Amino acid sequence: MTVPSPVKKSEVDVLQRVPHAKPPFTLSQVKKAVPPHCFQRSVLRSFSYVIYDLAIVSACFYIAITYFHLLPSPFNYLAWPIYWAIQGCVLTGVWVVAHECGHHAFSDYQWLDDTVGLFLHSCLLVPYFSWKYSHRRHHSNTGSLERDEVFVPKRKSGIAWYSKYLNNPPGRVITLAVTLTLGWPLYLAFNVSGRPYDRFACHYDPYGPIYSDRERLQIFISDLGVLAVTYGLYKLVAAQGLVWVICHYGVPLLIVNAFLVMITYLQHTHPTLPHYDASEWDWFRGALATVDRDYGILNKVFHNITDTHVAHHLFSTMPHYHAMEATKAIKPILGGYYQFDGTPICKAIWREAKECIYVEPDDGAQGKGVFWYRNKI
Predict the structure, then answer these.
(1) CA 201, CA 190: separation in Å to the nearest integer?
(2) Residue 359 to residue 373: CA distance in whole angstroms
(3) Which of 48, 170, 306, 364 measures 20 to 30 Å from 112, CA to CA?
(4) From CA 126, how far away is CA 230, in angstroms rounded?
(5) Contact partners, residue 37, CB within 8 Å, separation at least 6
(6) What is the pLDDT of residue 14?
(7) 29-49, pLDDT tens digit by residue?
(8) What is the distance, to the nearest Å, from the Cα of residue 123 to the centroid of all Cα atoms in its chain?
């Protein structure tokens, strides 16, 4: 008789629900476990990552425009996918640094953070201040079904009529393909997957419901930054041709957008993570309802935004280069409230797309305000 192979403990643990009751520790106790220097921001060190990333991007761009046309076939066709992959990954790291500027984690000077963030995000066609303010509200309301800003799960009664037709392997392929390619621009332009508002919400609209009166001027500035880069791309198309711009800039940007959506989706979507309605939600439990992931060598390329996300939600002004040390320090305090999933990313995103369709509370009188992912339509 064959004996079934035992299931590894880590595989069981990773699908075991995290606690949803109020933690037996406080944010202050967690912070005390972190070495004080982890909260210190260095202008020189932060800029070193900007320079390093932009140097790689510039070198790859120079090689592409100088040598690719000299390569004999089929090497010239092989060179482009390599270029796209490297540029897309490194530019995602640039995106992360700009994200850090939005959290005031780049330096001790808000004006410097905003200047660097506006420049870097505009180059990637991201409205810096617009996203900064909506993302700040995401951090203030993580895990709330009513007030979170992005990847807000729907209740069963709120899922679209066509969801049952997509709840199969071909449907999941289509859903993931659309999400990874169009998800980011659709979110910025139409608030797709974002928090529902009582009227049309758009990150480019200074008078939209996402923003307050004191934020509107900066939304105009964000729009001008994106328009300036768009105009530069238009002039480049006129000079070099559309195909040239798509190959050198467009495809890497699509990869950046896909990574951004994938990273964010996997940080906040997991079968073991709770969501809360207004009767149960509080900031601390919401911030803990996130998961760290392992992207292998890309963890470093992405400046560890992937595997230190729990710490980032607890201390968002902490620079990324201290986040690994802080994560190691807080894990013993968090205990079961800390969730790490080392499942390979392709396997993980497929599992989450299959298992995490909508949220509902468990049956019974207790925990009515605590919602868990389901997939039975």
Answers:
(1) 6
(2) 4
(3) 306
(4) 11
(5) 322
(6) 86
(7) 999 999 999 999 999 999 999
(8) 18
- Residue 276 pairs in a beta bridge with 144, 370
Closest CA to 221 of 209, 204, 235, 207: 204
**DSSP structure string for 50-76:** HHHHHHHHHHHHHHHHHHGGGSPTTHH
Alpha helix segments (H runs only) across 191-335: 216-240, 242-245, 251-268, 283-288, 298-301, 309-314, 323-334
Is the entire prediction scored with pTM above 0.90?
Answer: yes
Q: How far apart are CA 62 and CA 339, in angstroms?
A: 42
Cβ-Cβ contacts under 8 Å for 153 (sequence gap 6 or more): 145, 269, 275, 356, 358, 359, 371, 373
Cα angle, residue 31 at apex, residues 103 and 109 outer, rounded to 5°: 30
SS3 of residue 129 by DSSP: helix
Please give the torsion angle defined by the CA atoms of residues 99, 352, 342 and 11, in that order, rounded to the nearest 10 degrees: 160
d(CA 341, CA 318) in angstroms, rounded, equals 22
Task: Return the pLDDT at 12.
Answer: 58
Asked whether the CA dihedral 29, 30, 33, 36 is positive or negative, the reply is negative
- Beta strands across the sheet bearing 370-374: 275-276, 370-374, 358-361
Structure tokens that stand for 303 in this block: 């400046």
Q: Mention every residue, 6+ apart, whose C-beta is less than 8 A from residue 40.
A: 319, 322
For residue 136, the model assigns a pLDDT of 97
Under DSSP, is residue 353 helix (H, G, I), strand (E, B) or coil? helix
pLDDT, block means (10 residues), the chain with 377 residues: 40 83 97 98 98 98 96 92 98 98 98 98 98 97 96 92 93 97 97 93 96 97 98 98 98 98 97 96 97 98 98 98 98 97 97 96 80 93
**Positive or negative torsion for Cα 353, 139, 187, 57:** negative
Q: Could you give the CA distance from residue 100 to residue 319 in angstroms, rounded to a whole number?
A: 7
Report the alpha-carbon angle 282-143-194, nearest 5: 130
Element (H, E) at 361: strand 358-361
Place of tokens 């972190």: 34
In angstroms, the CA 46 to CA 30 distance is 25
